[in-house]
Amino acid sequence: MQVPIQHIYKPSREGSGLLYAWFLSMHTRVDIILYSKKTEGELLLVVNRIYDALCRLEKMANFYDPTSKLAYVNRTAFVSPVVLSEELYSMIDLCLEYNEKTLGCFDITVHSENYNQTTIQSVHLSAEDHSIYFSRPGVAVNLSGFLKGYALETIKSILNECVIENALINMGNSSVLALGNHPVGTGWKVNDILLHDECLTTSGNDSSERRHIVSPRDGKLVEGARQISVVTTNGAIGEILSTALFAADGEQRKALMGIYAHCRVYIYPPC
Questions:
Q1: What angle do CA 145, 90, 197 make, to 5 degrees?
Q2: DSSP H/E element including 190
Q3: In this structure, how many other beta carbons lie within 10 angstroms of the beta carbon of residue 163?
Q4: How many whole angstroms from its chain centre is CA 50?
Q5: Can you tell me the distance from the alpha carbon of 176 to that of 201, in angstroms, rounded to the nearest whole number?
Q6: What's the mean pLDDT when you consider all of the chain?
């Protein structure tokens, strides 16, 4: 049986120590580096909190897990309104908000039956009782283009609560949180990009054969081996933007890069 969490700890002469831990979650490998004056045991407790938080998010919002709360919503919200937890409600509400803020390029309903650009208008939230209702059959909400970025923000909250000032969290090289500094330098360098209290989120295809992002324009998989990375201070927003920028056409991408000019955007290979 595989041990869920594995780790290595290295103390330093200055009284601080570096803990490197890794485990599998959200269909990817999660690598964690914590640099702190806390003991090995204390840092392991932090890692365990992170692990438990990711398991909770996956159980709540994994589109592909038939036992998740989100899967239940997708099966039943057309029949009658489904009351959501405050957290899941706020996640879906934010994604609906950013559908408009990304010119429709980020759409959590692209995996619906008979999808078109108006499908998202069939998702109705009630702020009064935190419920969700679909006004037509076949609608499905998929948070996959958002969940890892949201997870980074959840992890950041845990690290702040535990007073961990220097940390690097890497979820499959596509969703990265960097806090504070590397033990021997300023910030953290990831793929030649220097991060300091920032998140790096990447969306795209690493080959012409491996495609997974659906275009809201036509409901088809986006073609081409290209990746887009975004550096932001908020991982959830960064995940949304990288997904939207990848799904956008040239004109939409130019417009979005103007709207979000405060974010750093990297396109590979360059246009």
A1: 65
A2: strand 188-190
A3: 10
A4: 14
A5: 6
A6: 93
pLDDT digits (tens, 9 = 90+) for 81-98: 999 999 999 999 999 999
Helices (H), the chain: 40-61, 69-76, 86-101, 147-161, 235-247, 250-259
Q: Give me the pLDDT at residue 208, please.
A: 54
The better pLDDT of the pair 238, 211 is held by 238
Preceding amide of 269 cis, omega within 30: yes
* 109: Cβ contacts below 8 Å, ≥ 6 apart: 115, 119, 120, 122, 123, 139, 140, 141, 142
What average pLDDT does range 195-215 have in this prediction?
Answer: 77
Instruction: State residue 217's pLDDT score.
Output: 76
Whole-number pLDDT of residue 220: 75
pLDDT of residue 1: 45
- d(CA 171, CA 32) in angstroms, rounded, equals 9
Cβ pair 175, 152 in contact under 8 A: yes
Which single residue is written with the structure tokens 């932090």? 46
The contacts of residue 42 (CB under 8 Å, 6+ apart) are none
Spatial CA neighbour of 169 closest among 100, 257, 235: 235
Distance CA 94, CA 107 (A): 11
Domains of the chain as residue ranges with CATH: 67-134 (1.10.3980.10)
**Through-space distance between the first and last CA atoms of the chain, rounded to whole angstroms:** 46
Per-residue pLDDT tens digits for 153-177: 999 999 999 999 999 999 999 999 9
Q: In 3D, which of 85, 28, 34 has the Cα closest to residue 61?
A: 85
